[in-house]
Structure formats: structure tokens, C-alpha cells
Amino acid sequence: MSYQDYEVVIGLEVHSELKTKTKIFCSCSTEFGGEPNTHCCPICTGMPGTLPVLNEKVVEYGIKAGLAMNCNINEFSKLDRKNYFYPDLPKAYQVSQYDLPLCYEGEIEIEVNGEMKKIRITRIHIEEDAGKLIHESGEGSVIDYNRCGVPLIEIVTEPDFRSSEDVRIFLEKLRTILLYADVSDCKMNEGSLRCDINLSIRKKGDSKLGTRTEMKNMNSFNNAVKAIQYEAKRQIRLLENNEKVTQETRRWDESKGITISMRSKEEAHDYRYFPEPDLMPIITSKDKIEEIRSSLPEMPDIRLKRYIDEYKITEYDARLIAASRNMADYFEEAVKGAANKKSVANWIITEIFSRLDEEQKEQAKIPFSPSILTELVNLIEDGTISNSIGKKVFGECWETGKRPNDIVEEKGLKQISDDGQLESLVNEIIKNNEKAVNDYLNGKQAAIGALVGQMMKATKGKANPKKVNQLLRDAIDKLNN
Known about the structure:
Layout (H helix, E strand, L loop, with lengths): L5 E12 L38 H13 L3 E2 L2 E2 L2 E4 L9 E4 L6 E10 L2 E14 L3 E5 L3 E5 L6 E7 L6 H18 L11 E11 L9 E6 L2 H20 L7 E6 L4 E7 L7 E4 L6 E2 L2 H10 L4 H12 L3 H8 L2 H11 L5 H12 L5 H6 L6 H12 L5 H14 L3 H8 L7 H14 L1 H8 L5 H12 L6 H16 L1
Parallel strand pairs: 12-13
Antiparallel strand pairs: 1-10, 1-11, 2-6, 3-16, 4-5, 4-15, 6-7, 7-10, 8-9, 11-12, 13-14
Helix pairs in contact: 1-4, 2-3, 5-6, 6-8, 7-10, 10-11, 13-15, 13-16, 14-15, 15-16
């Protein structure tokens, strides 16, 4: 039996740190990168006698994320203690939500190989993050509790994924949604977004789920894809050899490219939950939910469709721009006064994107305002400068922040469109390029391009290429007649 006879079944638990300034139950900073154990206090480290106070912003952000993912919102929810013993939990329990989560029954639509697929969101609940264990080779382990108490949302999906590609596309879409909703910075390198992967294998056509393993704390999309592909093959090999898959927690070893067993997991839910006695239930009115809903921006799918319909740009270009809220906002400002909306998109994708890394794209770290791009596009559209000169002007705008009009005036870059001035040059180019002229007369249409190139070189790129093209054709046809 081959791998094609099996089906992989995957569900995700995605953890996203919320971008509040303070922790979920105390006033300690959530800022990343502080010296170890400097952003913690008796409350977040669970000292006896301390009492937590819920950060209201955490609830608001949790609801906002839920609405962005088309979830229902529980008007009455509560916090619970999730008990497990591990050094990164100073209280020996994590404050989370069990039977009454903040959000439930949502969905995110993704497109995989041209087909639309709905991924069901089982629930979204708020909880506190744990500390960070640092394993030092040969010297044991140390703990940094700065992250302990940082607010999280956990997004739990149904087992609706059937491939690593499904998962990759979903995680990219989810990250975009969270950034649009402005509830998380989603910096995977800082642990702001990470996921656990629950994976099982079954023969195609079977309805019963196989025994699953859980892969913890995947902190990059690439690692998630590699871990899924490896683990699926590992489980298939076991089944093909008539061996059992053990229900367990595994981790991805990036250096070896394999998953490694961490601990067995006898039951699907082996935590002892009970209501958190130190915190009141969370009661949210319908009015408050609607207020939060109204604060959501236009989400990426809606923007994508609008860019295609309203601005007539390609779906590919629209996806690239809409992938970042900041870049989409920049684009929206730039097109407001632009004579050619598609041209604005082209300049962003070809010139701006080529100068930015992924993080800079996401943050739209562009050294000039959208109005400068609008001005540049309009100078090209009204014939003041050519597209090639436009690239030079763009480069100077990027370096200096000057306005395109000022650069064009200072450097005398206006396009030459005067027929009389161009005709004398056309006659000279024809005279000095006899072979190209004969090639054109013999039916080689591409030869006209070489002549246009000579004209552009002679005018240092300032000649109007459309006019030059036509004047050359007219002059050669006249000469031939």
C-alpha cells in the first residue's frame, strides 16, 4: 500500500499573544526582550496571598479577534484553572477557559489550488502565557518568567486540514486577520504566534479518526509544513508495518528534520480543570459586542474583492497588497488622486516591494508619503515624464524624500514631446541606422524597437516613447514611398 492510500487529518491550536501594554492579571510590562525576570511581580509569579485582576483590554481584543473570524461571542464566560506541573508555571496551574470560552463556532475561508475551503473554528479563549525554559548544554536549565502572564488567545480549529499546504495557507490567512484586527503583532520570532499541530492518519474512505500525536510550539510556517510532512510519513510507516501509533506529545527537531517524542498522553484531555475562584465571570453586553464589531476595519477578503472590482487590478497584485493592512492603507491613500489606479499597484509591487524585506513590507516602512507616489504616477500619465525617467525620479524620492515635481524641475527631466524637436532627431537616427531601417522595411517589426532605443539614448530618456515610435514609423514609410 502506498502513501496515496492514506489521508492525513490535522487540527490546530494556535496561540497568539495579544498586544496589550500590561499582562493579563497584573500591571507588569509585556514588552519583549527585557533582562530575564525583570518584567514580573508577585502576582504573575503566583506568590501566596496575591490576587489577580483581569485586564479589560484582553477581553476586548479576544472578542475582536473572534468577530474577525466570524465567531459567536459568549455574553457570559468564565476563567478556569488548568492544572499541570511544569517549571514554567510558577503557580502549578494556568488560568485559561474551559467550558465557557469567550468565542465559539467561527470559520475562516481559504483558497487551496484554486478551490475554496472553510476551516471551522471550534473556539477562541483567553489565557495567560507560561514562562520560558532555557536549556543550557551541560549546565542544566534556567527559567525566565518575563513571559509568564502575558495575555494569549488560543484559536482551536476542527480537524479540517488534509495537507501541510492547507495548514500553511490557513496560518498565513490567520496571521493577516490578526494583524488587520490589530490585536497581535504576530512576530513568530518573538513567540507572539505559535501553534500546536494535532495529526492523525487514516485510510482513504474511513470515517473513524486515527490515533493522533500533538506537535508543540511550532514557531514558523516552514517548520510547521516540514513537521507535518515528516510526521505523516512516520505514522504511515508504522501502520504499514502493523505497528500502533502512540498518542503522545512530540516536538520538531529542526536541526535533524524529525519529530521526537516528549511525553505520552493517555487521554485527549488530561488536565484537571476547575473554575478560577479569584476571578469573577466575564459578562459582555450585546451593545459592547456591537461596539467592538464596529471598530473592526475592512477585512482582507473584502478589500481584495474591492481592489479587483473597483481598481481593476489583477487578483495576484490585489493579494500582495491586501496581505498587509499597513501596505493596503498606504495603497488606498495613494490611489485617491491617481489618474491610473493600476499603475499605483504596479509601482508598489515592482519598485517598493523590491526595496523592502518582509517585516518592512508588513509595516509599510516607505520613506515617503502616499501623495508622493500619486504625484509620480500622474506625472507619467500626463506625459510630463517617461516611465524610464519615472524610475530615476522614484529612486531620488526614496533617497531624499523630495517631491517628484521638484526633482523633475531641478534636473530638467521633462519629457520631450515637441514634434519639431523630435523630427530632426528622428531623421538623424534613420540616417545613422541603415541596417535597422532595412530590417523594418523587410518586415522585422522588432527593428523599430532598436531605433526607439537609439532615440531614447540620444535624449537621455526624455523623449516621449509613444511619439518617437509613431514618428519613426511615419518617417520610414515616407522614405520607402
